[in-house]
Write a structure and sequence with these properties.
- The protein is built from 2 helices and no strands.
- By secondary structure, the protein is mainly alpha-helical.
- It has one domain.
- The longest helix has 14 residues.
- It is globular and about 30 Å long.
- The N and C termini lie far apart (20 Å).
- The mean pLDDT is 76.
């Protein structure tokens, strides 16, 4: 998984859980791209 600063990790984990819930068939690479897209909006 992508490394974040410690205070951001719970937020990133929540995003990942939400993305996974919304995209249950997504691959790890797809989820990573979605996370990056969310993170840099």
């Amino acid at each position: 998984m992508i490394c974040y600063t410690s205070h951001a990790t719970p937020i990133a984990a929540a995003w990942a859980a939400e993305l996974l819930a919304q995209n249950p068939n997504a691959s790890a690479e797809e989820l990573k791209q979605l996370l990056l897209a969310e993170h840099f909006q």
